[in-house]
Amino acid sequence: MSQTQFGDLAHVTKKSQMLYEADQRSPKGDYFTAIASQGVDVQYVLTGNRSVSSNVELVDLSDGMASIPMYDIEAAAGAGRSFEGEPIQSVLHFPKSELAEQGLDPAQIVGVKVRGDSMLGTLEDGDWVLVNRGNRDPKQEGVFLLLVSGERRIKRVQRLAGGALYLISDNELYQPEMIKPQDMGDVEILGRCEIRIGRVV
Q: Ranges for the Peptidase S24/S26A/S26B/S26C domain (predicted)?
């Protein structure tokens, strides 16, 4: 962001922002309150150390861009479908129009980093995938982010007759897993994996 844009976030002039950055003047508390409400990590600004977690509202850079929070699936510690309170590793910006063309609501999209090789052939270790939290019903086969016994996993999911779920790894070295209806209390579908971001090999 330019100094003018960042100053606008904090309700100060470009000149004031320049003086703060040049260490010629110190901002007051309302400056930090304003930038924190816009998603800035105030601890990082003050100390150079990032906060352990970022439970903040993300900012659109412009009307046409959406800020998508990116999480490390392995670092995620909380339970349930909410990612609030989890450490945001980075933020990627996507044109809202491009997401809309894919039928995706930016407010429902999060990115997660893929860990492991169980989805080899579809997703590689270290890839990023955009997850649509608005689609958690595996009526049609697809790849989903799930919470299984407190652990976040990415699997191909099929719903079987009687309500059971069949969790499939695309890597043939891993055996499929059936979740019986009576065990569904240990499983929560967090969202459908929609877009892969990774290296071309």
A: 69-192
One-letter amino acid of 99: L
Report the alpha-carbon distance of residue 24 to residue 35 in Å, rounded: 19
Mean pLDDT of the chain: 82
CA 95 to chain centre: 16
pLDDT band at 81 (very low <50, low <70, confident <90, very high): very low
DSSP 61-74: SSTTEEEEEEEETT
**pTM of the entire structure?**
0.65
CB 160, CB 181: distance < 8 Å: no
Task: Indicate the residue type of 14.
Answer: K
List residues bridging with 145 in a β-sheet. Answer: 154, 191
Taking the C-alpha atoms of residue 129 and residue 111, their distance in angstroms, rounded to an integer, is 6
The CA-to-CA distance between both ends of the chain, in Å, stands at 33
Residue 152 CA to residue 79 CA, distance in Å, equals 9
Q: Other CB atoms closer than 10 Å to residue 128's CB: what's the count? A: 22
Residue by residue, DSSP assigns 108-171 as GEEEEE--SSTTTTTS-TT-EEEEETT---TTS-EEEEEEETTEEEEEEEEEPGGG-EEEE-SS
3-class DSSP assignment, residue 15: helix
